[in-house]
Specification:
The complex is a heterodimer of chains A (584) and B (145).
Chain A lengths: L2 E6 L2 E6 L4 H7 L23 E6 L2 E6 L10 E3 L3 H17 L4 H9 L19 H10 L4 E4 L6 E4 L13 H5 L11 H7 L8 E3 L9 E3 L6 H4 L4 H5 L21 E3 L3 E3 L16 E3 H8 L19 E8 L14 H15 L4 E6 L9 H11 L2 E4 L2 E5 L11 E7 L4 E7 L1 E6 L1 E3 L3 H7 L27 E3 L9 H21 L9 E3 L9 H5 L5 E4 L4 E4 L9 H5 L5 E3 L4 H12 L2
Parallel strand pairs in A: 1-5, 10-21, 12-19, 13-14, 13-19, 14-15
Antiparallel strand pairs in A: 1-2, 3-4, 3-5, 6-7, 8-9, 11-20, 16-17, 17-18, 22-25, 23-24
Helix pairs in contact in A: 2-3, 10-11
Chain B lengths: L11 E6 L3 H10 L8 E6 L7 H9 L4 E6 L10 H18 L7 E5 L5 H18 L12
Parallel strand pairs in B: 1-2, 1-3, 3-4
Helix pairs in contact in B: 1-4
The chains are: A alpha/beta (584), B alpha/beta (145).
The complex binds flavin-adenine dinucleotide, iron/sulfur cluster (2 copies) and FE2/S2 (inorganic) cluster (2 copies).
């Protein structure tokens, strides 16, 4: 684009031909007041507060800077006496309608308007139209518009009713210079959103996210609701935002696979007696981790749902673990993170009473028992006993709004009733429901608690019966991070050693189909769990791939023609065994 | 071993899968659990590889009972091998009934590698049941002694 020369307040400068004057001035650091202008929107030019003086070949004109295109040789005055007089006049008119709006009063002060000649009105909308324009031009919801004329002119929704086209994005409130539009907070909604959920439509999941990249939350992104917005696309200098991106399925060929699919936290709603979802301020351990995280919604401050600092917190160990009703096993990590929570609460909230309800304290690792002893010294209250119930039944006004925890303290043999401001449930680590499906997909197996089973608990702890498939981490059983990392290291090196070797050892007990006896019935093809058998249509024969066969012998027993046999388990060998053992 | 009804000691041939039941039987031994010495184990890789023919043959050759042991459903080392066992054994038992052999002489049990105790209990029970049934009528045929 052509560059032109112009002079602003006596200083020579250059700008691309026909750029808005406001922009050219801003680039030089010259501030011109604006009200109806927003960088994301097409200039509108209604408020006229940005009026400046332009001299073109001895002709002087008053123009609005936000939408005036610069041309070669113009001379601009942004703060001349004539300009200031003009702005004072505009402000007086505006104050006559909106006498108490802070932006106007700030400008009035700046331009020395103390006693507006036409009085001060009580409206708070200056009719700049930014909200109307943002809603239609950017958001694309077209909810707001101008209604009526002259002094009665207003901005509103059609027929002044709540519009069902409004997607509550809040863009109008965001751009409104006077604060006339307010988004009402729905307390219930805030509580629901508090523990988690993205803070903005485009966000980085959390500080330690891998990869640490921004993602768009489709549910709240305006573009996916109205097809417009895409403000982020303009702002992103790397041009990395693409709303058209879709999930893709890619096929990658690999020789070994590590299954590290982890765990899920037990659903707290199952334990009705603990009132999760029913009362505020009862959260899962994972919610607490999020709340306590410096990158979390409260920037790491431990606050109740109504934003107060809790004076007492109850932490319940073993929720759903070591419990015949839910999971018989111990989740291993809860005791230690429950202690970690207690320690962090003590550190962050001075004087907060922390109650840890436990069945047994399982501090199994290096330095763990020492940590427990340290907490005893820090004044954490340890109550040995299972919490029976949590509710909000206050006995006197001091307990109003508190959560009442009831548990038998088995150390002193009494039932205790402890009112607290917040409860953290340390829920069981569970196998993911999809682990079963994965185990079929990868030819490994799951135990009765749903976690993947290792080939041998001591001798092959990261291997599975399927060669080249390794497991590590919480998908194999509940464990903490140090154990997960140790196991993952072992699994990775086991996988590497396979890759290094470049070849796999096959089972010695594989099955073989004697071609001359095979009738081509394909019964074996259907029974093989490893899809090791293929049927050759041309020859009308089935054959076994030695590399895939695991030697279960199922096909051998199924073959009606007796064509399949298993090495080391041939019929003659079995019969000889039967003969042998019946001979004594 | 005598075959007279009063001091009759049944002979059991057990086809045990390598991964669960055979290991379970091993565990019963390692854990020093007591169970009758009437059972003789044949190790196979999976209960799914037990041919009905093996069972028939064992009975024909004079076994008083045949035990088939496999992993619990869902735990088969080969994923679905025992699904076939589960279908195959009842059919085999029906067939035996039709041939005049008491189907109770063939027993299918899911015994995991950790269930040494269960293995011992199964043998106790089976021996008791076979004692009540008496000797296999086929014993004393060609292959009996
Ligand atoms: C509240 C809480 C606090 C804890 N605090 C501590 C602590 O202070 N110290 C400590 O040592 N341990 C702690 N732990 C334990 C710790 O979380 C686990 O040890 C650790 O997360 C296990 O890591 P993992 O990688 O095996 O599983 P996960 O962390 O569960 O990771 C599994 C990953 O696999 C992905 N995935 C799952 N399925 C698939 C699939 N089909 N395809 C692709 N990806 C998939 C998941 O999205 C996930 O990212 C805590 C646990 C909880 C619940
Ligand atoms: S298009 Fe971009 S800026 Fe607009 S709502 Fe979606 S993420 Fe936010
Ligand atoms: S022995 Fe088992 S794994 Fe091998 S081909 Fe036969 S059915 Fe498949
Ligand atoms: S800002 Fe230019 S006319 Fe309103
Ligand atoms: S391996 Fe035990 S039943 Fe298949």
């Amino acid at each position: 684009m052509k560059t032109i020369k112009l002079k602003i307040n006596g200083i020579e400068t250059e700008a691309p031909d026909r750029t808005p004057l406001l922009q050219a001035a801003e680039r030089m650091g010259i501030r011109i007041p604006t009200l109806c202008h927003h960088p994301l929107l097409e200039p509108y030019g209604v408020c006229r507060i940005c009026t400046v003086e332009v001299r073109i070949r001895n002709r002087v004109r008053m123009v609005t800077a936000c939408n005036y295109p610069v041309t070669n040789g113009i001379e601009v005055f942004t703060d001349s006496e004539r300009v200031r007089r003009n702005r004072r006049m505009i402000l007086e008119w505006m104050l006559a309608r909106c006498g108490h709006v802070p932006v106007l009063n700030r400008l009035a002060e700046e331009y020395g308007v103390t006693e507006p000649r036409f009085g001060r009105g009580d409206d708070d909308c200056i009719l700049c139209g930014l909200c109307v324009k943002v809603c239609s031009e950017v958001v694309g919801a077209n909810v707001l518009g101008f209604f009526d004329r002259g002094p009665n002119r207003t901005v509103s929704t059609a027929y002044d009713r709540t519009s069902d086209r409004c997607i509550t994005c809040g863009a109008c409130a965001q751009v409104c210079p006077t604060g006339a539009i307010r988004i009402k907070d729905d307390q219930e909604g805030i509580y629901q959103a508090m523990p988690m959920g993205p803070l903005t439509s485009i966000n980085i999941d959390f500080m330690q996210a891998v990869p640490r990249k921004a993602v768009i939350d489709r549910d709240s992104c305006i573009h996916f609701k109205t097809g417009k917005c895409q403000v982020c696309v303009d702002v992103c200098e790397a041009k990395a935002i693409d709303h058209k991106q879709e999930d893709r399925v890619e096929e990658v060929e690999v020789g070994t696979i590590l299954l590290t699919t982890g765990f899920q936290l037990q659903d707290p709603r199952v334990l009705k007696e603990y009132g999760y979802g029913k009362y505020k301020n009862i959260m899962t351990s994972l919610d607490f981790e999020v709340l306590n995280n410096a990158g979390g919604p409260t920037a790491g401050k431990i606050l109740t749902a109504d934003g107060k600092v809790p004076k007492s917190i109850g932490i319940v160990h073993c929720v759903g673990s070591r419990d015949q009703k839910y999971h018989e096993y111990c989740s291993r990590v809860c005791c230690m993170y429950a202690l970690k929570f207690a320690h962090l609460i003590k550190e962050k909230i001075h004087g907060c009473e922390v109650y840890n309800f436990y069945i047994d304290m399982r501090c199994f690792g290096k330095g763990y028992e020492e940590f427990y002893n340290r907490l005893l010294r820090e004044g954490v209250n340890f109550v040995r006993g299972k919490v029976a119930e949590i509710n909000d039944a206050a006995l006197d006004p001091s307990e109003e709004g508190k959560l009442i925890m009831r548990a038998e303290d088995t150390m002193i043999g009494v039932v205790r009733r402890i009112p607290v401001d917040m409860v953290v449930l340390c829920l069981a680590m569970e196998a993911k429901p999809e682990a079963k499906h994965l185990s079929h997909l990868f030819s490994c197996s799951t135990g009765k608690d749903g976690f993947f089973t290792e080939k041998h608990p001591k001798l092959a702890p990261v291997s599975t019966p399927a060669d080249g498939i390794f497991i590590a981490g919480a998908c194999q059983g509940p464990k903490d991070i140090p154990d997960t990392v140790a196991q993952a290291g072992a699994a990775a090196s086991a996988a590497l050693s396979l890759i290094q070797r470049g070849e796999v050892e096959t089972e010695a007990v594989t099955a073989t189909i004697q071609e001359e006896m095979c009738s081509g019935c394909q019964i074996c093809v259907g029974v093989c769990p490893y899809t090791a058998i293929t049927y050759d249509k041309g020859k009308n024969k089935s054959s076994i791939n030695d590399a895939l066969c695991k030697g279960c012998g199922t096909c051998v027993a199924a073959c009606p023609a007796g064509a399949a046999y298993q090495k080391h388990f041939r019929d003659q060998q079995i019969f000889a065994e039967i003969d042998g053992i019946l001979a004594i | 071993m005598s075959s007279t009804p009063d001091n009759f000691e049944p002979r059991i041939v057990a086809f045990l899968c390598n991964w669960c039941s055979y290991t379970g039987a091993d565990l019963a031994g390692i854990s020093r659990m007591n169970y009758p010495a009437n059972v003789r184990a044949i190790r196979l890789m999976c209960s799914g590889s037990v041919k009905p023919f093996f069972i028939m043959s064992a009975l024909h050759k004079g076994a008083d009972g045949v035990l088939i042991g496999g992993c619990h459903i869902g735990d088969c080392h080969y994923q679905t091998g025992n699904h076939l066992t589960k279908k195959r054994i009842p059919i085999t038992r029906e067939l035996l009934g039709a041939l005049g052999i008491d189907p109770r002489r063939v027993r299918l049990e899911w015994i995991s590698a950790a269930e040494g105790q269960e293995f011992a209990e199964v043998i106790h029970e089976f021996v008791k049941e076979l004692k009540a049934l008496g000797p296999n009528p086929l014993a004393g045929g060609d292959h009996a002694h």
